[in-house]
Known about the structure:
- It is built from 6 helices and 4 strands; from the N terminus they run αααααββββα.
- The longest helix is centred in the N-terminal third of the chain and has 36 residues, at 2-37.
- The radius of gyration is 22 Å and the shape is extended.
- The chain has helices at residues 2-37, 44-52, 63-76, 92-109, 111-125, 182-185; strands at 130-136, 144-150, 157-159, 174-176.
- By secondary structure, the chain is mostly helical.
- β1 (130-136) and β2 (144-150) form a beta hairpin.
Amino acid sequence: MATEDKDFIPTALERWKVCSSAESENRELAMEDLRFIHGDQWPEKIKREREADGRPCLTINRLPGFIDQVVGDQRQNRPRIKVRPVDSQSDVQMAEIIEGLIRNIEYQSRAETVYDIAFEQAVSGGFGFFRILKKYNDDDVFEQDIYIKAIRNPFSVYIDPRSEEPDYSDAMFAFICEDMAKVEFE
């Protein structure tokens, strides 16, 4: 166990370097997209020249309307998780029970809002994330509740760049960076 603990930090640092270097260009392009969406659409050199000549830098920003349209379409046609029995050993009634459990988890987590946040981030900057977590139930020490949580800053997530699946289901590791007060950490 001590050997595993000793190897953990160097392994994590190595993986962090791989993630941050692999994703740096994509993240810079996403930041550029977000600046453009928020109205910073003039190249800096041309903007300075125009301001020096006393000419305006007009921006007619139509992108937020298009983003709202795509996000609105997603809200009107929400994808749903459907549980289906796949073989002769499966039970239709059990599939319905599992689907009901998933619906309860989504309801308790206010998952529609979580999904909306991730989708809008993906439309605006190219990627958005949410987490599926578990926490111990207050009533029972051994019982855990599953919940879905938004990740408000998609730039805080770094995922294994060797992952090939679009949903990163084959990723071997991921980092979610979060600022935390030292007192809270201790």
